[in-house]
Amino acid sequence: MTEVVNLTTMEVDALMDVDGGLNLTDGHARLVLTPQQSDIVAHIPEMFVEATRRPFSEIELAAHKAFFGAVGQHSAPVGTGRILSCYSSTLATDILARALPADATVAVLHPTFDNIADLLKTRGLKLVPMSEEELLAKEWPGAPVNAIVVTLPNNPTGLITSQGHLESLAEHAVRNNQIVIIDASFRGQVRDAQYDTYAVLDAAGADWVTIEDTGKLWPTHELKIGLLAYSERTKLPIEQAFSESLLAASPVVLQLITELAGDWVDGGYERARDLVERNRAVIGEFGLKLADPDSQISVARIELPVNGPDSAVLHKEMLARGVHVLPCSPFHWADPESGLRFIRISLARPFETVQKAVQTMAEAYRDLTPSS
Amino acid sequence: MTEVVNLTTMEVDALMDVDGGLNLTDGHARLVLTPQQSDIVAHIPEMFVEATRRPFSEIELAAHKAFFGAVGQHSAPVGTGRILSCYSSTLATDILARALPADATVAVLHPTFDNIADLLKTRGLKLVPMSEEELLAKEWPGAPVNAIVVTLPNNPTGLITSQGHLESLAEHAVRNNQIVIIDASFRGQVRDAQYDTYAVLDAAGADWVTIEDTGKLWPTHELKIGLLAYSERTKLPIEQAFSESLLAASPVVLQLITELAGDWVDGGYERARDLVERNRAVIGEFGLKLADPDSQISVARIELPVNGPDSAVLHKEMLARGVHVLPCSPFHWADPESGLRFIRISLARPFETVQKAVQTMAEAYRDLTPSS
After folding, report:
1. A240 and A279 share a domain?
2. First-to-last C-alpha distance (Å) of chain A
3. Distances (CA, A) of B362 to A263, B207, B309, B315, B356
4. N or C of chain A: less Cβ packing under 10 Å?
5. By C-alpha distance, which of A62, A94, A27, A222 is closest to B223?
6. Residue ranges of the alpha helices (H) in chain B?
């Protein structure tokens, strides 16, 4: 078996840890259900019955309406047939990667979750990095770039491409005949990222594709949907790629999402935020430094001082102490060295889990640093 | 949007039909739950709680044990780490397609479900057809073929590769340094296909990969697992391809499968068989001809006489009459013409649905045939 070093492999290792190690790797919500969520889950057996009685298209439409409404995307093409429900956002990304022209050059935000770059590369596309600094300076890539991928908010930094910046990007893309691709998998967690991006993209007349995800919002044990939406202008063979990958998402999961989106609007968002912010504060309490103090997403980067161990060393030491986290080099898919001072931890975990993990990290860091 | 003509596209159209048309396209079980299955589904809320409490690896292992045991595969590599749980058998196939060497030539059974050939071709592999006649005559392909794909039982014909034939294939493959790939998605439905294929493959010393599926057995509305298993000899980077596609299947779905596999052993198999066989008999009752009278799977091919309309014409007429079925040309992925006399209908539907659809087909056929 070829050795693999992508982030998901480390997340799989953490998940399969049989020695009871703490798993703070993946961005999935690994939490006990809130009472409100428990009430919804209790109705799943009825959703099975409903899935036999009601037409699939009706169930799917209700889920799209509820989800896009709950995350502020009121101009999303709900009901047009241009939103495809996939098993996951990863599958949605792969479907898009397959539908892009085989000789396309794609600019991808850097750093960002390595899976996006990996899926595009595996399909044979050429990638060029676009840094967060370039994004903030509105220095958009020109030829030969055919498509520009922005993660909104970005993972792992939490950077939010503002409405003004998205307008600038969309106008640039129209002038240069480029496709704007937005991976909004973490959008549901952050109100500031919930301005109506579909309205912005359509106002500019852009050719766009977006990926949305329910998987980062709710502790539903992989019962989730990745949504792949595209503009009226889009000429890519997305439907054909979709039909190669799946027939349809589960109408039971779609009903679950309709209900959870309703709860999200009704206090669920605030309940989830409170836990994440409480968990983020723990990092400072143990003397560790948040790399992105303004980030609002459910993962956080910790920045390691230059005079101590780097993240590769610290990551290994933490594994030995039974705590799984992610070293950040793989996020820097075009320049792994530049990620060496960062560690990512997931905050969508019970408070005690985050507390114990951060304490372990602070201790491991201290033990590895020569006393001055 | 490029026009698409694969089978899944027709299945999607049937699923999205808002005029209440009858859907006999896909091989998924679209049935009301049996009382026993309802009892299991009623416990899903508890499976959510369990998924938080028990380690994932334990939940997954229990599902693998229960499923492989229920379908007679006692030598499957349960507990070795060489069984990967995917969202679907399609995703398992795509992961395998990605892991095969980019320049491989693959022999694929012909006819068979077009998605298998499509996924391999999309990943750039070269395909050659292997007919059912060649399989039955043990005329196995030699160089330059690197891998041989057999669907067991075959879809849509129901042909079962016997133990003796699989032994012959495995020995041939070992001599010729080829990988044996078995898509056993329909195996759970047919006792005759449940001889221990893992024992056969390992006894021959073969390099093998298998795909198993829970999605064709139970009416669980796409809450299913596709299983990708491989031999100790297999050197393909399957784990890497897996980690590009998903982190893990749902521990809730895995628990559901454990329970449904238990019911399958405890009378569920016979209950499902009885319905399918009753539905298959309907075809003859309306004067239509079963192409594969020995087939035991939950889909059936109807053979159209040569002096009447072909399946493309009949398919169109049936759509006009509100019945969705599949014309068989796309199954004949290397020679669509040879599928023109066949229509496939799904039998895993309520009896009344199959009865009405077959009646409509008989009438449509009569109306399209010039009176002699």
Report:
1. no
2. 44
3. 50, 47, 12, 12, 10
4. C
5. A222
6. 7-15, 35-41, 44-53, 56-70, 89-99, 114-122, 132-136, 163-175, 197-204, 238-245, 251-263, 269-285, 311-320, 351-368
Domain-terminating residue out of A229, A261, A293: A261
Burial group, residue B366, by CB count within 10 angstroms (0-12, 13-18, 19+): exposed
**CA–CA gap between residue B347 and residue B164 (Å, rounded):** 29
Quote the domain boundaries for residue B327: 7-34+267-367
| DSSP code at position B149 | E
User: Is A244 close to B51, i.e. CB distance below 8 A?
Assistant: no
Same domain flag for A66 and A172:
yes
Work out the minimum CA distance from A143 to partner chain B, whole angstroms: 25
Q: For residue B154, give the nearest of B192, B99, B209 by alpha carbon.
A: B192
pLDDT of residue B253: 98
- For residue A253, the chain B residue with the least C-alpha distance is B223
Average pLDDT over residues B131-160: 98
**pLDDT at res. B17:** 87
How much is the pLDDT for A62?
98
pLDDT > 70? residue A3: no
What value, to the nearest 5°, has the Cα angle with vertex B333 and ends B331 and B338? 75
Model confidence at B306: pLDDT above 80: yes
Residue closest to A232 by CA, chosen among A249, A207, A215, A213: A207
Domain membership flag for residue B40: no
Distance of residue B3 Cα from the nearest chain A Cα, in angstroms: 8
Distance (Å) from the C-alpha of residue A14 to the closest C-alpha of chain B?
10
Return the percentage of chain B with pLDDT > 70, whole number: 99
ipTM of this predicted structure: 0.96
* CB within 8 Å of B250: residues ≥ 6 apart: A221, A222, A223, B51, B223
CA dihedral for A126, A128, A132, A138, sign (positive or negative): negative
Is the torsion defined by CA of B308, B310, B313, B316 positive or negative? positive
Q: What is the DSSP string of A62-114?
A: HHHHHHHHHTT-TTS-TTTT-EEEES-HHHHHHHHHHHS-TT-EEEEEES--H
- Whether B5 has a pLDDT exceeding 80, the answer reads no
Mean pLDDT of B264-283: 97
Q: Are residues A134 and A160 in the same domain?
A: yes
Q: Return the axis-axis angle of helices A89-99 and A238-245, rounded to nearest 10°.
A: 130
Q: Decide if A41 is inside a domain.
A: no
Instruction: Answer yes or no: is pLDDT of A17 > 90.
Output: no
| pLDDT band per the 50, 70, 90 thresholds, residue A19 | confident
- As a whole number of angstroms, the longest Cα–Cα distance in chain A is 71
The residue among A261, A296, A326 that closes a domain is A261
Contacts of A122 in chain B (CB under 8 A): 98, 244
Query: A222 vs B9: CB contact, 8 Å cut-off?
Result: no
Instruction: Tell me if B332 is assigned to some domain.
Output: yes
Max Cα separation, chain B?
71
Q: Is the pTM of this model over 0.95?
A: yes
Chain A environment of B250 (Cβ under 8 Å) = 221-223
Same domain, yes or no: A98 and A151:
yes
Q: Which is nearest to A178 in space by CA: A215, A109, A233?
A: A233
| Inter-residue contact A173 to A206 (CB < 8 Å) | yes
Chain B residue closest to A236 (CA)? Answer: B1
Domain total in chain B:
2
Chain A residues whose CB is inside 8 A of the B12 CB are 243, 247-248
CB pairs under 8 A between A and B: 166
What pLDDT sits at residue B207? 98
Task: Give the one of A8, A45, A247 whose C-beta lies nearest to B42's C-beta.
Answer: A45
Q: Do A222 and B252 touch (CB under 8 A)?
A: yes
